Amino acid sequence: MVTTNSLQTSNDKKEKERLEKRRAIEKQDNADSLRLDKVLQDALKIANQNISKNRFIKKYEVSPDSIPVSVEINLDYHFTKTNPHLIIRRNEPSAIYIDIYAKGENKFEKVISHEQWTMTYVNDTIRDINGDGLNDLVVNWYGSSGCCLKAFSNVYLLRKDKKAFSENFEFINPTFSPNEKIIRGVCYGHPGETEMYKYKWNGEKVDTLEYVSYERNERGKTGKVIISADRPYGDEFKTLKLLNSVPTEYKKIEGYDWFTGSGYE
After folding, report:
1. Residue 233 clears pLDDT 90, i.e. is over it
2. What segment(s) does the record annotate as region Disordered (predicted)?
């Protein structure tokens, strides 16, 4: 027979174990943070020793607490022809850290700090993503959990001062069209059952232009295509247009086959 006292004792023991586990995790996280911050500060010291230059690169490895970290210090005109930026990369077994600094007259000012799990990281690129003539930072990664297509891009837009950057924008399964200032993509969902989206850059905002989905009835797809201002759920959903086929502009985007379900049946 389980008594109230024994049940309380068991609950207290579980709570104590949970708190001890949490404290251990927090302690390790703090140690990791201090270790990685020291690696970054040491890299900054090297960069500051070369601040008189506009181009400088150095690569090396360190192993604080026996954990290997690859470091790259790269000062160059990465984003514009007039304003150099310093990029410091720290790669360790579990994560990749990208820190970017604008170069001033006698100091570096941090403008981006991005962390990405190694298991999800795909690549990162410097390119004009929004069609304003300025190069931006794009970090591409792939989700580690979930059932469906989940290629993500985090975008940091270079501002007009050619030094600072916007907060990051996150897109799922995007195809960027800088000439149009448009982003088209496929939403999260099962093949043949999800929607496509169309966004437009509006300075440091993104406007939703439309969603594309298949019309369905109790038998499934009707063969018609719905253009709407919102995803096809809820009472506020309204059809803007009903078409006989998907607009041509969407047929070449990444993940279009996922939207149609072709090859996934």
Report:
1. no
2. 1-26
pLDDT tens digits, one per residue of 163-192: 999 999 999 999 999 999 999 999 999 999
From the list 171, 138, 178, the residue with the least C-alpha distance to 152 is 171
Find out whether 126 and 143 touch, Cβ atoms under 8 Å.
no
Q: Are 209 and 199 contacting, i.e. CB atoms less than 8 angstroms apart?
A: yes
3-state helix/strand/coil string of the chain? CCCHHHHHHHHHHHHHHHHHHHHHHHHHHHHHHHHHHHHHHHHHHHHHHCCCCCCEEEEEEECHHHCCEEEEEEEECCCCCCCCEEEEEEECCCEEEEEEEEECCCCEEEEEEEEEECCCEEEEEEECCCCCCCCEEEEEEECCCCCCCCEEEEEECECCCCCCECCCEEEECEEEECCCCEEEEECCCCCCCCCEEEEEEECCEEEEEEEEEEEEECCEEEEEEEEECCCCCCCCCCEEEEECCCCHHHCCCCCHHHHHCCCCC
Strand partners, 142: 151
How far is Cα 195 from Cα 187, in angstroms, rounded to an integer? 5
Between 16 and 153, the more confident residue is 153
The fraction of the chain above a pLDDT of 70, given in percent, is: 88
pLDDT tens-digit readout, 239-249:
999 999 999 99
Are the CB atoms for 165 and 157 separated by under 8 Å?
yes
Please provide residue 109's backbone torsions phi and psi, each rounded to the nearest 5 degrees.
Answer: -115, 125
The CA distance from 250 to 240, in Å, is 17
**Which amino acid type is present at position 97?**
Y
